[in-house]
Amino acid sequence: MLTNRQLLILQVTVDDFIETAQPVGSRQISKKEGVTYSPATIRNDMADLEDMGFLEKTHTSSGRVPSEKGYRYYVDNMLTPQRIPNVELQQIRSVFEERMLETEQVIRKSAKILSELTNYTSILLGLDVRKHRIKRFSIVPLTDDSAVAIIVTDSGHVENRVFSIPENFTSSDIEKMVNMLNDKLVGVHLHELSSKLELVTKTILQQRIGHLENLFGSFNKAISIEHGHEDKVYYGGKMHLLNQPEFNDVAKARSIMYWMDHVNQIPGIFPLDKMGIQIRIGSENNHLAMENCSVITATYSIGEEQTGSIAIIGPTRMDYKRVVSLLDIMSGDLSKELSKLLHGHYE
Amino acid sequence: MLTNRQLLILQVTVDDFIETAQPVGSRQISKKEGVTYSPATIRNDMADLEDMGFLEKTHTSSGRVPSEKGYRYYVDNMLTPQRIPNVELQQIRSVFEERMLETEQVIRKSAKILSELTNYTSILLGLDVRKHRIKRFSIVPLTDDSAVAIIVTDSGHVENRVFSIPENFTSSDIEKMVNMLNDKLVGVHLHELSSKLELVTKTILQQRIGHLENLFGSFNKAISIEHGHEDKVYYGGKMHLLNQPEFNDVAKARSIMYWMDHVNQIPGIFPLDKMGIQIRIGSENNHLAMENCSVITATYSIGEEQTGSIAIIGPTRMDYKRVVSLLDIMSGDLSKELSKLLHGHYE
DNA sequence: TATTAGCACTCTCTCTTAATGAGTGCTAAC
DNA sequence: GTTAGCACTCATTAAGAGAGAGTGCTAATA
Fold first, then answer.
1. Is the CB of A38 under 7 A from strand C?
2. Bridge-partner residues for A133, per DSSP?
3. How many angstroms is C1' of D6 away from CA of B33?
4. Looking at the C1' of nucleotide D21, which residue has the nearest alpha carbon?
5. Is residue B142 classed as helix, strand or coil in its secondary structure?
């Protein structure tokens, strides 16, 4: 168990290191406001904190630096939410002020402002399109043997794919198909589309219109290709990370950039199932490149099904207080605004 | 005028520096295959080449490094096209082998393979959507006061925008509008859409259906927003540049990354008007961040109007021979493949 | 008993110095 | 015209010295 003084010293050490990026010495702490102990006393406590694994030394006679365990303790127990100045609240609200009509725009702009306010890198995961419901099908022929299929969802999102038309199909066949699609499949989730489509195809076989089978097959092939289906990822301030002193090494910078570019392919980065704010410190990210990084994620949601995710990536030495507060505000606002956008009212 | 020996020495110097990234000394050159002169002789010629501005020294007693003028001369006069090994040709061709139906896919994959083959960064500028012709309009209502407008072009590209529906318009009004749009505006170029639309709106006023004016206005506002209209840019191997020894400095790396992210907003980077291969060396790029970079661009085209652009960004010390050959092959193949895709046949 | 002052010790950082070696420029010989 | 020889320059590396920041331990103090 930590004494009060040890708690104070741990907190001051972490705060100071977050601010200066330099190892913190006992003398430096003793001069802080609110600290009344002499350097020697502080040294004793710091040695204890080191024994307990909360602090580390970079070398024998250096000041202390928080360990991962130290950050973890700090984050779990000492994170008093920070008041965000009005000017900045204003900035966030301004994202939603001008009336934008498309979710993509809103998300993109949110990513930008978040990275600007934090000076770290922001990653926003768009709403999972697969959970949107189909509103309308439409097919536009392009050449003799190809056409573009268009699927509009209830969120206003538009998916489109070119597919090839087998020989001997006329435009009236295609019209028939579109009608059937709109008849049978409006309202289903995008991710169910492929399986439901097969059901429909089976029904076709049982009816007179069995010759449409090929057409449906080609269509199904086109929409099953995953290429556009993966979740959309929006970045803000990718370069901000390079400003941090811990990434002055090009090799490190490169591996982090690489990690970021593939973040949506790594499972478990965005915990969409857990609501609220999650903090992952250093090695908790389970990736070598992220050793010196922390990731803070928050979720936003519309209704009960649709959830998206916001993340901020910074050095482990990042300003947790501030980032958590900002993410909290942002995710709330985003939920509200998108609900309004998609359902025409606040939920 | 340069003597033959000077030409030889310049060429060997540039080639060697491209390969090793180290200043080239006279002794090193004398040991090269095809060089029969002693280091002293070579030193004399190198001094002359330096006087003429083709070579530079990094310090008094260092070997020589090509100057921008040296690279320029090399590129203009000594660039014998390199034979690309069959294995690599095969790799390029493989992009087009599996039958892909969408231009975006083809371009994306081309960018990837190009960066892999060169180990530099590739940038592909997609076809200018604004030159595509409109094939079909369609409007899908979302909520009471919003709808998504969809425009399909002859290339299979789909543009979509959400727009708000003023009060008191019924779905039959919208149907009327769609019919009129399809009636009057199919076949026009996307970039003419806005101006032609105004003409149509004027005609409306002169007819009974004047009450549709507001609806057209709202629609026009939505499609005039430029946000999706800017040319699409596809990157390949963004991180490759960081592997080059000249960018070991994080500050340099950052400014180049920044430049790349904004490259489509800088006019004149992609000379779409000039066909063929263009090489811009160092300061010829007119940007401080690109001092140490060269950009090689090639154009590809479909028919006579539609042109896109391919670029490779590398250090000034890049392997010009190889890159030029690769770009030449790639741009040709891309033109062929996309023509087939969009017009159903080779041009 | 908890806190603090004092002091020796450790380790990094920076600056200096010296040695090494790659490469040049010049001059004289071939 | 070409080359060998040699003095000279400058980057790079290693080693050493001094300064400074910070620690750990012990003994004194409240």
1. yes
2. A189
3. 28
4. A62
5. strand
> Is residue B326 located within the same domain as residue B266?
yes
Mean pLDDT (chain A) is 89
Residues B192 and B254 in one domain: no
Nucleotides of D under 7 A from a protein CB: 2-5, 8-11, 20-26
Q: Does at least one atom of strand D sit less than 7 Å from the CB of A51?
A: no
Residue A247 backbone zone (phi > 0: left; psi -120 to 50: alpha; other: beta) = alpha
User: What's chain A's Rg over C-alpha atoms?
Assistant: 27
Rounded to an integer, what distance in angstroms lies between the CA atom of residue A276 and that of residue A297?
8
- pLDDT in the model for residue B172: 87
Res A189: pLDDT: 92
Cβ contact A101–B250 (<8 Å) = no
The CATH number of whichever domain residue B249 belongs to comes to: 3.30.450.40
Contacts of A154 in chain B (CB under 8 A): 142
Let me know whether A58 and A200 are in one domain: no
- Condensed to tens digits (0 to 9), the pLDDT of residues B152-162 reads 998 889 999 88
pLDDT band per the 50, 70, 90 thresholds, residue A212: confident
- The structural domain count of chain B equals 3
- Token reading at B123: 């940038």
Contacts (Cβ under 8 Å, ≥6 apart) of A168: none
Shared domain check, A103 and A51:
no
What are the tokens at B254?
A: 């950052």
Q: What's the Å distance between residue A37 CA and nucleotide D16 C1'?
A: 39
Compute the radius of gyration of chain B from its Cα atoms.
27
Q: What is the pLDDT of residue A229?
A: 47
Domain span at residue B303?
86-128+232-343
Most confident of A207-216, A287-296, B250-259, B296-305: A287-296
Average pLDDT value for chain B: 89
Q: How far apart are CA A111 and CA A115, in angstroms?
A: 6
Q: Which of B101, B105, B140 sits opposite A146 (nearest CB)?
A: B101
Residues of chain B with C-beta less than 8 angstroms from the C-beta of A226: none
Q: How confident is the model at residue A122 (pLDDT cuts 50, 70, 90)?
A: very high
| Last residue within a domain, chosen from B199, B228, B257 | B228
Which tens digits make up the pLDDT trace of A257-287? Answer: 989 988 877 777 787 677 889 999 999 999 9
Same domain flag for A52 and A102: no
Asked whether residue A161 carries a pLDDT value surpassing 70, the answer given is yes
Q: What is the CATH number of the domain that holds B51?
A: 1.10.10.10
Say whether the CB atom of A314 is under 7 angstroms from strand D.
Answer: no
Cβ neighbours of B71 (radius 10 Å): 23
CATH of the domain at A199: 3.30.390.60
**pLDDT exceeds cutoff 90 at A154:** no
Same domain, A241 and A327: yes
Q: Is the dihedral of CA B336, B342, B344, B347 positive or negative?
A: negative
B142 contacts A154 by C-beta, under 8 angstroms = yes
Q: Which of A121, A248, A250, A343 should we substitute to test contact with B (largest number of B Cβ atoms within 10 Å)? A: A250
Which residues of chain A make contact with B250, given a CB cutoff of 8 A?
242, 247-250, 253
Do residues A203 and A275 both lie within one domain?
no
* Sign of the dihedral through C-alpha A152, A154, A156, A159: negative
Q: Report chain B's terminal Cα–Cα distance, integer Å.
A: 45
Judgement on whether residues A247 and A339 belong to the same structural domain of the protein: yes
CB of B5 nearer than 7 A to strand D: yes
Confidence class for position B346, pLDDT limits 50, 70, 90:
low
Taking contacts as CB-CB distances below 8 angstroms, the residues of chain B near A247 are 250
Indicate the pTM of the whole model.
0.89
Q: Which of B285, B301, B304 is nearest to B293 (CA)?
A: B285
Torsion of CA A43, A48, A52, A55, to 10 degrees: 0
Using the 3D structure, point to which of A77, A110, A141 is the last residue of a domain.
A77
